[in-house]
Amino acid sequence: MQSISYAGHRFPLDLIRHAVWLYLCSTLSCWDVEDLLAERGIDVSYETVRRWVLKFGPTICRHLREQRPRPTAQRHLDEMVVSIAGRRMYLWRAVDSEGEVLDLLVQTRRDRAATLKLLRKLLKRRGCAPRIVVTDLLKSYGAALRELGFAGRHEQGLRANNRAENSHRPPRRREHKMQRFKSAGSAQRFLAAHAIGYNVFNVERHLVASPTLKRFRGAAHRAWETPAAAA
After folding, report:
1. What is the C-alpha radius of gyration for the chain, rounded to an integer number of angstroms?
2. Which of 11, 25, 106, 164 could cysteine-pair with 197, CB 3.0–4.6 Å?
3. Calpha distance 148→142 (Å, rounded)
4. Is 147 helix (H, G, I), strand (E, B) or coil?
């Protein structure tokens, strides 16, 4: 794994890494991160935080994606409406049976062609076809799977796809916090990075005991620190 160079930045590595983590792995805005750092006596503007996220976030998230365990053979697909620059668009998401976000795609349409684009992107990135695909009753899913020659099982139902439906909650909270996205490109870039942070730090705290939660959190932070290390 190639280390990240922080040369030329007057702030220390740990501070930059922490600021990027606060923004990508929580519901905080750049202004919120600025306020938290200021409360600790660190004078960093929100614009500096934004630039750190744009510069270091994609590389950190790419390294994190490479370290994630192999997903399960079951895929849950769903789409939700997002408003981008006053325009109605759709965020398509694919998760596995454990809630791991596998891929997402911002598109203008909600039809067979849009479904095909998501499925092909997912196959290209993951390199293997799933055994089971779970969706809602949108007919575009079945048409796209037939065109791809999918040989596995396609399950459809209003409640069968709750796993994918629940995965929309974190990006919906961020959409509200950011007062909606400004462009499809910026939404795609941010949500892809946010999904990686969600995968690493989503430790299902309501399902585990306190000692187990501490162990999971420690492992998540170590996973974040490794790709964010300096060259």
Report:
1. 19
2. 25
3. 10
4. helix
Q: If residue 16 lies in a helix (H) or strand (E), which one and from where to where? A: helix 13-24
Sign of CA dihedral 191, 227, 36, 45: negative
DSSP 11: S
Q: Are 153 and 133 in contact (CB under 8 A)?
A: yes
Q: Is this structure's pTM higher than 0.90?
A: no
pLDDT tens per residue across span 53-101: 988 888 888 888 888 888 888 889 999 888 888 889 999 999 888 888 8
* CA-wise closest residue to 147 among 155, 158, 156, 139: 139
Q: Which CATH architecture has domain 74-182?
A: 2-Layer Sandwich (3.30)
Residue 100, both tokens: 């791991």
Place of tokens 């365990």: 69
Task: Provide CB contacts within 8 A for 91, sequence distance 6+.
Answer: 79, 80, 81, 82, 104, 105, 106, 168, 171, 187, 191
